[in-house]
Design brief:
Blueprint lengths: L3 E5 L7 H16 L5 E5 L10 H13 L14 H19 L2 E7 L7 H10 L10 E7 L17 H10 L6 E6 L14 H26 L1
Length: 220
C-alpha cells in the first residue's frame, strides 16, 4: 500500500502552503484508507544542520562507492558519526519508506526556507537515487513569479526543488502547485491585486484536487 511523507516548512502555523498541503494530504488519505502517512513539521520540530561528522559519512560513502541508502550505516564508526547517524537515520527511513513525498513550502527571499534546506541536506548523499518516488510540491509566494512575469527569473523555490529532485534523486515526476500574491492580503502596494491572489488560490486548490483524483485513479 503506498505511503505518503508530508513535510511542512512554513514558519507560520496557519499559512497558504500549509493549507494546500493539508488539502492534498486529507484527500490522499481519504483515497488511500489505512495507508502509511507521516507528517513532519520542519518549522515546529526543526531538523539540525549537518555537521562535520555528517560530511565524514558522506566522504566515506564516496570512497567505498556505496550508493544503496540501506547500506549507509556500514560507514558509521566514530562516536561523532554515530551521533550524526542518530539524527539522520529516522529522517532517511521516512523518506525511503514513502511512495509519495509532499513538500508544502512558502518561498522566502526567492528560495526555500532554511528549515526545508536543512532536511534536504540531512537526507541527501552522493549518487542517491529515489527513482520511482513521486514528489508533489505545493508552494505559496508573496508576489507573482509565473512564467512571463517580470520576476519569473528569481523564483528559486519550486525551480530549485524541481532541479534538485531531478539532478540528484533522479526523480523527474514532480508536480508543482503554487498560490501567488499572498502579500496582497497585508501589503497596501499589492492591495489592488487581491482578486488575482484569490483566483490563484482557487486555481491551486483545484489543481490539488485534480492531483488527488489522479493518484486515486492510478491506485485503483
Amino acid at each position: 500500500m503506498p505511503g505518503l511523507l508530508h513535510l511542512d516548512a512554513s514558519a507560520r502555523s496557519t499559512s497558504f502552503s500549509r493549507r494546500l498541503g493539508a488539502r492534498f494530504a486529507d484527500g490522499w488519505r481519504a483515497a488511500h484508507p489505512g495507508a502509511p502517512y507521516v507528517h513532519r513539521d520542519l518549522a515546529a520540530d526543526p531538523v539540525p544542520f549537518i555537521d562535520e561528522a555528517w560530511t565524514e559519512l558522506c566522504d566515506e560513502l564516496m570512497r567505498r562507492r556505496i550508493t544503496d541508502p540501506h547500506r549507509y550505516h556500514e560507514v558509521v564508526e566514530t562516536p561523532a558519526q554515530k551521533a550524526a547517524w542518530a539524527v539522520l537515520a529516522p529522517l532517511l527511513d521516512e523518506l525511503l519508506a514513502a511512495d509519495v513525498v509532499l513538500v508544502a513550502t512558502p518561498m522566502y527571499n526567492f528560495s526555500v526556507p532554511a528549515a526545508l534546506k536543512a532536511w534536504i541536506d540531512q537526507v541527501t548523499f552522493p549518487r542517491m537515487s529515489l527513482a520511482g518516488t513521486r514528489f508533489v510540491v505545493v508552494c505559496a509566494r508573496g508576489g507573482t513569479y509565473l512564467p512571463g512575469t517580470p520576476r519569473a527569473a528569481v523564483e528559486h523555490a519550486t525551480s530549485y526543488l524541481r532541479d534538485f529532485f531531478d539532478g540528484h534523486f533522479a526523480v523527474t515526476d514532480v508536480d508543482v502547485v503554487a498560490a501567488e500574491l499572498v502579500n496582497s492580503l497585508v501589503d497596501p502596494v499589492l492591495a489592488d491585486r487581491r482578486s488575482e491572489h484569490e483566483a490563484s488560490v482557487a486555481s491551486a486548490e483545484a489543481e490539488v484536487d485534480r492531483l488527488v483524483a489522479a493518484f486515486a485513479a492510478a491506485a485503483a
